[in-house]
């Protein structure tokens, strides 16, 4: 068994409409699924991705109305990267961010790649990373109807950074249980902090890395709008997911068991420093219940929730995504 890379990252927003406007009209991503949190159907679950929502390209958001401010800290998923094709694309994005008053740190370098650290309107901690030198997992294809030119568009998820107080227990889970390998390190931009450790899986590269920052003296993060709920990793299929379940259970890591998310099958568990990790299958995908040309235009519900559609829709504030 070998995890293939990043599958998706799920974060929190306090306002679905403003979230939709930012990620489609500024970031140029496609809303490939407008659904609900299957564990709490009173809230939207929005999926932004490449043209068809390929595994490894999804950034998703749960709408929690009234979610408070995030107080960044330890035991957290502290940065999410989005891939762009090359260094020239970063020049385009720097101009675009300045045009739309998006807070950013300019073009810098991280782990031998050019990047732009930036924040969305809710202070979600994000990084654009250039795939100029990537030789690992291939990215997806930007949507042809995006407001961003295809050759500059976001092609998927890049490295996800976690911040923890103690490296050893997390490293053991990553390397001895999940099969990640230590791939390198780079200097932190925080004075006095140890180098950030890079772990890779599968083909490696920008689409298959977790970056681990160790901050023993940092307070625990207090999540809110702009915080990340969990990171999901790619599993080939259901048969392999069952094998992962057996392994995770054997390690005595409390887990959800296999959960049917309809668009993929999942298993959730927390590693010792409290990071919520999901293992998710590559299929069947988002075109299962919608035509590819019309993804994300209506509220999509898995079959086991369809009978509750009227009740579910009555609780949600209408969100026009056909624009």
UniProtKB/TrEMBL annotation:
Keyword annotations: Dioxygenase, Oxidoreductase
Gene3D superfamilies: 2,3-Dihydroxybiphenyl 1,2-Dioxygenase, domain 1
GO molecular function, one term: dioxygenase activity
Domain of life per record: Bacteria
InterPro entries: Extradiol_RC_dioxygenase, Glyas_Bleomycin-R_OHBP_Dase, Glyas_Fos-R_dOase_dom, VOC_core
Keyword Oxidoreductase among UniProt keywords: yes
VOC domain residues: 5-131, 156-282
Protein's name in the database: Ring-cleaving dioxygenase
